[in-house]
Specification:
Length: 247
């Protein structure tokens, strides 16, 4: 018996008790009271039997046994068909821009060797050309020639030193055409400072000089005639033989 039948039976019994109480209160003759109660009991039993039979019949007709009412309802198996999505192939086209290689910037670099005879002087008065010095000891290609005379014996030339140049090299002497007995004093200045006390040379003397010019921006060359050999006017040339700046 399921919960519905139990509740229905209890309700019927309660109703019967209430009706029996009313009959007992309303009906006065004892024999009539007993008959009414008997009839009420019979009707109650018949109603209960009828309800149980009717309930069991409806369950049997629907194919569900009466003994299975307390069990969980049957669930029909459900077949679920899951659609499988086929991924659409994706084609990716990669476009590579052509690589452009820029040429490195061109910077002005100093030549490996710069002869002062080929450079523009900041100031000075001099000649350039070939010479032979020291009594035919040294043949000079590109040289600076400072004229020596008895009227004005001081000569100078100033040049800028380009970045990257590190060394100044020169051979000092008097040209073979210089009058015997003439002497000259040679001096080198870097950024206005003398490198030493200088060199005093005669007709047969030569002096090779090589100095560092790292960190310097200007070089000045000077000569002064110290002896004129008894002559007047032009007495010779002080020669800066193959004077050059180099890396």
């Amino acid at each position: 018996m399921n919960t519905g039948n139990v509740l229905l039976t209890v309700g019927t019994v309660v109703l019967a008790v209430i009706v029996g109480g009313l009959v007992n209160w309303l009906v006065r003759p004892p024999w009539l009271k007993t008959s009414a109660l008997a009839v009420l009991v019979v009707v109650l039993l018949a109603g209960l039997i009828y309800l149980n039979v009717l309930k069991d019949g409806s369950q049997t007709a629907s194919g569900i046994p009466a003994s299975d009412e307390s069990s969980e309802p049957r669930t029909s198996p459900t077949t679920t068909t899951q659609a499988t999505e086929t991924p659409t192939p994706t084609t990716t086209t990669k476009t590579t821009a052509p690589r452009t290689t820029s040429a490195p910037p061109v910077t002005a670099a100093a030549a490996t060797v710069q002869y002062l005879a080929d450079m523009d002087a900041v100031s000075g008065t001099f000649d350039t050309g070939t010479a032979t010095i020291g009594g035919n000891k040294v043949e000079c290609g590109k040289s600076l020639l400072f004229s020596l005379n008895t009227f004005s014996s001081h000569r100078s030339a100033v040049f800028n030193i380009e970045p990257g140049l590190t060394t100044f090299t020169v051979v000092l002497g008097l040209d073979n055409g210089t009058r015997d007995g003439v002497k000259a004093h040679f001096q080198i200045y870097l950024d206005g400072a003398a490198i030493n006390t200088g060199y005093t040379l005669g007709v047969l003397s030569v002096q090779e000089v090589s100095i560092s010019v790292v960190g310097k921006s200007r070089i000045e060359l000077t000569t002064d005639g110290t002896e004129n050999g008894g002559g007047t006017g032009h007495v010779g040339d002080a020669t800066w033989c193959d004077a050059r700046l180099a890396k």
